[in-house]
Each structure stands twice: as structure tokens, then as C-alpha cells.
Amino acid sequence: xxxxxxxxxxxxxxxxxxxxxxxxxxxxxxxxxxxxxxxxxxxxxxxxxxxxxxxxxxxxxxxxxxxxxxxxxxxxxxxxxxxxxxxxxxxxxxxxxxxxxxxxxxxxxxxxxxxxxxxxxxxxxxxxxxxxxxxxxxxxxxxxxxxxxxxxxxxxxxxxxxxxxxxxxxxxxxxxxxxxxxxxxxxxxxxxxxxxxxxxxxxxxxxxxxxxxxxxxxxxxxxxxxxxxxxxxxxxxxxxxxxxxxxxxxxxxxxxxxxxxxxxxxxxxxxxxxxxxxxxxxxxxxxxxxxxxxxxxxxxxxxxxxxxxxxxxxxxxxxxxxxxxxxxxxxxxxxxxxxxxxxxxxxxxxxxxxxxxxxxxxxxxxxxxxxxxxxxxxxxxxxxxxxxxxxxxxxxxxxxxxxxxxxxxxxxxxxxxxxxxxxxxxxxxxxxxxxxxxxxxxxxxxxxxxxxxxxxxxxxxxxxxxxxxxxxxxxxxxxxxxxxxxxxxxxxxxxxxxxxxxxxxxxxxxxxxxxxxxxxxxxxxxxxxxxxxxxxxxxxxxxxxxxxxxxxxxxxxxxxxxxxxxxxxxxxxxxxxxxxxxxxxxxx
Length: 588
Ligand code: MG
Ligand code: MG
Prior knowledge:
CATH superfamily of the largest domain: 2,3-Dihydroxybiphenyl 1,2-Dioxygenase, domain 1
Largest sheet: 8 strands, parallel, barrel
CATH architecture of the largest domain: Roll
Strand order of the largest sheet: 1-2-3-4-5-6-7-8
InterPro entries: DSD, Glyas_Bleomycin-R_OHBP_Dase, Glyas_Fos-R_dOase_dom, IolE/XylAMocC-like, VOC_core, Xyl_isomerase-like_sf, Xyl_isomerase-like_TIM-brl
CATH class of the largest domain: Alpha Beta
Bound molecules: magnesium ion
Helix content: 25-40%
Enzyme class: lyase
Number of strands: 23
Shape: elongated
GO biological process, one term: 3,4-dihydroxybenzoate biosynthetic process
EC number: 4.2.1.118
Number of domains: 2
């Protein structure tokens, strides 16, 4: 289907917007009036610029507060419209968005609204322009899409149709099924925006929190399916007002918008995700020699070295960690640089990622190395899709030189990687949600805001349906941003036993937890007093599931968490994160 985007959705000047929108592969744009007003180019020059870039101007918007007004106001409104029609002729745009009247002077009279919109459509036709009438969710009298459609039907003019906007429909909780009764040729335009579910004034919600399809909580696929069943053949057009997108890189936002429409199309076509990951194959940490001791203390053993790169494989149970002493180790110390995912179909996963504009990263590979393709997550972390062939690259076994890890306990109680938590740049938080959902096939779980001593941490968790892969993306807001910590959570069957051993053998590795935390914990639950002694944190869900976890101190950007899930607990101990953050800040 044809794909468009409103210029208001991205940052920059109109010229910058057009360029980035074209580069992202869109077919057309909605010109948002303010972008034109502030633009030094004439409408003819904008038209030529768009044409050179291969972009059609699919809509000009918005025209406000037109219909259902007293006669004297109508005269002024028609004069205003005539001017806009002339601008549109110069732009080469033939569809004008008229949104329902919000002014206190508007009259609650559908027949009057229909009569005046018909008049507007007649005048517009003289300029080759058609009118798309949209119900704003906060319109004075018209705020439901079916109400706008009834007025359009009553006006009965071939140049007047309706514009459907997913936000205005879904934010009011309207059932989109009613769209299917509207004749497709009377749906002149479809605007798509998702949004997180927020209990707030709908106008503020719309102006600041819209996001691309797949980034929020609305069922965009269901609504779009209804529009298509009605017989609509026009563009899928993104119209997003978002405080963060307004500041972010225009190229990147445009590309992300395109990814959201491709993912939406794929879900409409019933394209199922070819390769939802079945587990973590490995986590790779850039490190110049500081992590071996910590891993060894946690019970990992050095299990091999890469045949052609300065990379070591450390393993315990099904948990595998690669320590890379190569180019990526930064002056900030250890950092999580890559994640390997067990994929039932690595080739299919890579192809799917490519279809969603996440191309394979160029990599250096020795001829004898296993073929292993990576794509970039929004924060730059490399994501590898693996079968088991990569392990052969480490087949030469542990290096001959003795060092940390040699002779470590074969089993320190860790069984596998439970989850990986990455810190996302603020501008790419929504992008990350869409990436993990569409490219990796993970499902969104909880979304939280956590207090940090110096700001606020927003956190979103995503997981494979069976919990085999769990990812958490965090963004630090306000002052918390100085410490972009990442962590690797390792599952164990008995975290208390592991904690006892660490307490005895490596007490300095454990993050100390304040006594006040345990005073509160013991007030809420009957927990083993030993948790306090060991620094193990505790959480319980509403279904009786329990979570026991502890943290190591931080090395560079990275720390480790040891977790034990009991009774189907699906969360991440989020309530304890502020305690952890406060201790980490104090020690940083
Ligand atoms: Mg709209
Ligand atoms: Mg965690």
C-alpha cells in the first residue's frame, strides 16, 4: 500500500523533513501547515522539491473550526478557505483535512454542519480540491468518527469524504468495527498513530504522546483491517505528535516510522515471525581483562578461545559469556556489546530483520569462522542470530596459559541467562520497543517508571512468549543519565545457596543492601531473616510467584544479577530497583 507521513511527525525544517521522509522510502507526505508557514521556499518550490524526491503531497492540513457556525462567521471561514485552496493549487495538493469544530461558538446542529461542509466542498471543487472531514476526539459537538460520517453522508457531495484517525477513534474507546459500514470511496484518508494507555486529558495525550504503530497499546492492525474491509484504497499515513520525536534525528525517526508501517502490513498479511528466539546463545562483553576474576567467582569456567579473535568463551550450565578484548573495549571499562540469540532459523531471522530495515552489519570474518550474522539494536548492541555452529569457533578449548577461570568450580549454581537489561538513549526508547517487538518477535510486558535518586528511570520489558528470552530496556531521564548501566541477569535454582557461597568467598563482589530495606520487607512478608544477612532481595506477585535476586558490584558499565523465579513469577523485581539504583549511585 501507499505509505505517507505527516511532516509534523519528524523534526527539522520542511526541506530536511522531505529529504529524510523520501530517504526512508515513503511515497507521500501530509504537509502540516505550520511547516509550510515557517518555510522560506514558495509553495511551487516545495512542490518541485517533493517531486524531485519522488514524494506526492497527499494531504494539506489542518483547516480548523469551519463548520456549524453562524452566517457571519461562515463568510469569514469561506474567505479563509479560498486562500488555502490557492495555496494548495500552488503546492499541487488536492485533499484538505478539515477537523471538527472545537470553538465555543460552534452550533450543535448536524444539518447546519452538513450544509456548510457541502458548500465548502463545492467551492473546493472549483480548485480541484476535495475535503476530508475528521472528528477530533475533543471536537465541540462532533467527536466520534461515526458522527462525522453521518454529517458527510448527509452533505452528500462527491468532493466531501471522511478522514479516519486511529488516535481519535481509539483514544475514545470507540469500536472500529463501525468503519466497515462506511463505503470505502467515502473514506478519503487514513491517519495512523498509536499511543500508550494514559489516563489524562485527551488533547494533551494526543499532542504529546502519540507514537508509531506497534509502539503503544492500541490495536492498529485491527483498526486498519476494518478500514481495508470497508474498501479503502488510499495511503496508510502516519500522523504523530510526540515531544521526543520532535527532538530526535529526523532520518532515524522517518526510518522508524517506515518500519512501523512495514510491520503493520506484515501483521495484516498474516506474516508470522519466522524465528522467535528460543533462548540466549551468549552475551558478549567488551573487556580488557577485568571480568575474568568476577566470572570465575560466580562459578564460570573458561571454556575456550576464539580461533582467530581475542575472544574467550566462559560458560556455566547453559549460560555462555564471551569476553572480547578486541577493539570495542572502551575506556569506560567493561560493556555489553553483543547478544547471541538461539534462533530456529538464523537465515530467516536475518531476512525478516532486513525486511524491517535492520540490515546485516558488516563484519570481519576469517574464512574458517562459522557464518554468523548480526544486526544492530537501537542502542548499538549487536544482535546475533545463532544456531550451534558458532561454538565450533571456540573448539580449541581453554588456552594453555593458566589464569583466572582454570580450576573454577564446574557448577556455581547458575543455569542460564535470564534477561539482559540495556540502557537506551532517550530518543530511541519507542524505537527500541518497536524493534524488539517487530524484528525479534518479542512481546511487550510491563512498562514502568522507577524513581532514581537523581531522576527517573523508564523501563520496558519484552519477552518471548515462553520467557526463554527476556529483554529490558531502560532510559534514564533527568540526572540519572550519567550512568548508562547495563546488566546481565543469570538464572539459578537456589540463589540463597549461591549467595551463601559468595558471602563466604567473595563478600566484596556483592552489592550491599541497606538494613532499612529489610525492615520494610519483613513488615510486608514473612521472609527468611537470612535474606538480610545475604543481601538477597525479594518480590512476590499477585499469583503467589516469588522472585529472589541479588546484584554484584558494577564493573565499568556492567553488573550482574542472580535471579531465582519461583511459581511462575514473570517480572523483574522492579520494586527493588530503586534500592539497587540508590546503592549504585552511592558507590559510583
Ligand atoms: Mg488527524
Ligand atoms: Mg534485572
